[in-house]
Every structure is written in C-alpha cells, then in structure tokens.
Amino acid sequence: MTQAPPGRPIRPWWEPGVIYQVYPRSYQDSNGDGVGDLPGIASRLDHLEWLGVDAVWLSPIFRSPMRDFGYDISDYRDIDPLFGTLADLDRLVAAAHERGLRLILDFVPNHTSSDHPWFVESRSSRDNPKRNWYVWRDPAPDGGPPNNWRSAFGDMSAWQLDERTGQYYLHVFLPEQVDLDWTNPEVRAAMLDVMRFWFERGIDGFRIDVINLLSKDPELRDEEPNPDWRPGMPPRARWLWNRMSDGPAMPEYLAKVRAVADEFGDRVLIGETYMPLERLVRYYGGEHPGIHLPFNFQLLLLPWDAETIGGWVATYEAALPANGWPNWVLGNHDQPRVASRIGEAQARVAAMLLLTLRGTPTLYAGDEIGMTNGDIPADRIVDVGGRDPERTPMQWEPGRGAGFTTGTPWLPIGRDADRVNVTVERDDPRSILSLHRRLLELRRAEPALSVGDWEPLPTVTGVLVYSRRLDDRRLLVALNLTPDRCDAPLPAGRWRTVIATGLDRDADAWEDTVTLRGDEGLVLEPV
C-alpha cells in the first residue's frame, strides 16, 4: 500500500502508480539472437527507474510454440527458452523490487496451446478425464460446426473438427488456441493454482488476457448479426459477440480470481476487456469484488477531437461504481502507435492527457520516445494479424541494431531510429522523452494529478480543459487537439504555466484566458 499523509486514506500502489508495458521480444536482446529476453529487460531497468514509472507489465513469457507469440501457452509454470529461464525471471523480479518497481505478468486463462499436455490428453478420446477441460460439441445436424460463432482471427469458424473423435472443439482465436471450459471446477482450480504459483515467486499482479471470454452462453446459442457492420470492417465485427463472452458466470469467476490475489495482499489484477462501458464497469464487481482495473481502451479507439474525448471522460467518470478506480491506455502491442495514429505533434498532447487524467495510466514501451509504426517488408511479416508495425524493436541508440541487438532483429528496426531513440532524446531537454519524464515527476510531486478529483471546465472548439483538485491544491490542464492557435477561458484568478508540452514556456502567466499554440498542452497552477 502507498503511504498517505495524516487524515487521508491509504491507497493501493497502483492508484497513484504508472504501468509500463514491455513487449519482451522487442525490448532488449542480451544474447545476439535478435529477440528480446529477460536478461535484456533486467539490463534496462535503470531506464525505467530514471523515467519514473512504478510497474512493468510483461507480455507473455510462458513456454509456448509461439503461433500467437506467447498467447498460446503450453506450460503455465515455465518460461519459454526464447526469453530465458525461471532463474532469469527470479533475478528480474529481485532487481525490479530493488529499484522500487513492481512486476506484472500476462496471464492467459481462456485458452491453451493445442500442444499443452491437457489438450493432448483431451483430444485423445471422448472418455479421457481431461475431455471436459475444453469445449467439445457434436456436429450440427448437417455435420457442420455446432453454431455460427466466428474466430477473432480471420474469417473462419470458431470451431475445429477433430476427425479422430468426431467432435468439434472451440477456439475463439487460432485453431491452435483451444478454449478451456471454465464451467469445469477442475479447470478453475488449475488456473487459480497457476496464479498462486507466480504470486509465491514475488509477482505483483497479472494482466488477464480476454478475461470477458471466460464465461460464455451456457446454451452456446448462435451469435446475432451486428446491425452496424459495414463492408471494410473486420469480419469478426459482423457479429455482436454477446454469446461468446461476458456470460452469466462472470461475477463468480471474477470473485474467484480476486480472492486469490487478496490471499497475497497488495497485488493488482488488470483485465483486457474490449466492451461497452455499461458492461465494462461491471468487472469491478458488485456483491463480490471483481478485478482492480478493467482496461479502458477508449483513447485507442475514439476519434481524436476534444469534444469526443472530453465527453467520454465525463461519461466514464460518472459510470464508475463506488469501488471503481479509472485507468487509461494510449498504446499497446495490438494497436497502431499513438504517434502514427495522431501525428508526432499531437503525441505530446496525448502524453499530457494520459498522465494528467484521474486514474492509472499504462504507457507502452517506445511511446515515451515517440516511436512510430515500423515499415515491414512482405518478406519480413511474421504476424498474420497485421500487428508487426507496433511491435518493432525498442530504439535505444543510433547505429545498426539501435542498441537492441548485435544480431539480426526479429522485426526491422524503425527507419527513424538514428533520430528517435533514448540516447539522443535523453540529451535533448525538449524531447518527447524529456516531456514524459517531467510529467511523471510532476505527477509524483502533485497528488492532485495522481489521485485528485477531475472536473471538466468550459472549453472552446478543439480545446479540452479540466481541473485536478486535492484538498486546497488545484491544477488546470489545457490541451489543444488541433494544429491551430486557440484561446480558452480560465476560471477567475491568475494562473501560471507549470509545464508545457514543448518544455519551452514554463512560468508564463495567464488571467481569464490562456493562449495555446497549435498542438500544445499546458498544466497551470494558481499564482
């Protein structure tokens, strides 16, 4: 728990904290094979300590055939040799804790690899004891799949026929990613024991992959078509996904995973939950506690304009239950990089937004230096889902390999790596890296920014203005989401600039109105 001044509640560390996502393949290679690994991550912890984040979330590192880059697990209690060993992870945990950093693992409880020993047993015969660990069903009367459910990957059925046993098994993703049956108490017990195994090794929390898929429609009814689907949208968007996810047993399952975390104290559970707001907030739990942070991905998905974003923030804040703490995400390993989505200039404004909203921010590795989507030649594509551009290696320094590897990188290094890298930007007091560090320092120094109340203020077109307040301390944030100069009204009084996104106008004073340059954000304090 985080210490609090007298009279204030003690908060869990993740409420004022900032989470930093590392895609292990792309962070730091220590052995020259072109793929990032655990010793490499350990060698870069000084960067994270200097930057000022509080926790590191690692995308999957468990043993896997890597058909979906670790989200197809064949052993939940071991590290894939590509990344290192259990001993390497133990050393990473210890080194992170020595620096005051927490370590969060990616947990994938909805499905296993088809190579997992559980599934090898399950498909061996209809009467195998592991048969009902997975979702098996007889064919439809016409011999086809049991229902119309579609895979999230490609335009294919979510059911695969096993010729030997004559039944179909469910795979919401690749056919090699087989859905576990969480209605089976043995499956639930096995997954909860996996959580305990890692908590006992000192892990500080889990990001739980597609947590909303754990409970499905008990009758496996057909999905309904999406009335908003239009040509050009992904095939999976043809259906509403109301039957494949967020089923009636979700409250029970959430309570069970939360109870395991609570056994160990001060551990965080983060859920990947792409769903409408009214369903998302239920993951905080009702009668029984749920997860701490159901991921809020709206900054990844909304149009980048002040009116839309400001309206969403207000709606989200109003919808949060009494036990709900907000969270915000600007980038991750599945979505185009923020600097490519909205441009390099607005990426600075986005950083100020992310780090000054109420709630826990998650920062994707590389966004702090303004990395953009990589260019992937056809002969270098490795992900059939098209997510390679946002997964290119971290750019540490100029030159061949960009400080990431001495070998051939698994994905091409970004073409801008000689300009956009940690070494160059650390020496530039006005770089986007310097901006992130200054904002993180300010957030740590000003509890009003990390845990204070959020209040929207009157705005003009294209400008988002809000206040953050804790006790008698009040700060204003003014963000121009357009390339044009704008004047925005301020509350009565005199205000001065604490930090500007360009890091070039500290202490400018304002009264009644603030003048924002195009693509500029300011944090202001009363004089």
Largest sheet features: 8 strands, parallel
Percent in strands: 15-25%
Assign the CATH superfamily of the largest domain.
Glycosidases
Strand order of the biggest β-sheet: 13-12-11-5-2-1-15-14
* Number of helices, where a helix is a run of at least 4 consecutive DSSP H or I residues: 14
* Radius of gyration from CA coordinates: 24 Å
What is the general shape?
globular
Please mark out the parts with pLDDT under 50 across 5 or more consecutive residues, or reply none. Answer: none
Q: Any guess at the CATH architecture of the largest domain?
A: Alpha-Beta Barrel
Terminus-to-terminus distance: 33 Å
The third-level CATH topology of the largest domain is TIM Barrel
What structural class do helix, strand and pairing data support? alpha/beta
pLDDT average, as an integer? 96
Total domain units: 2
Estimate percent helicity: 10-25%
| Total strand segments | 21
CATH class of the largest domain: Alpha Beta
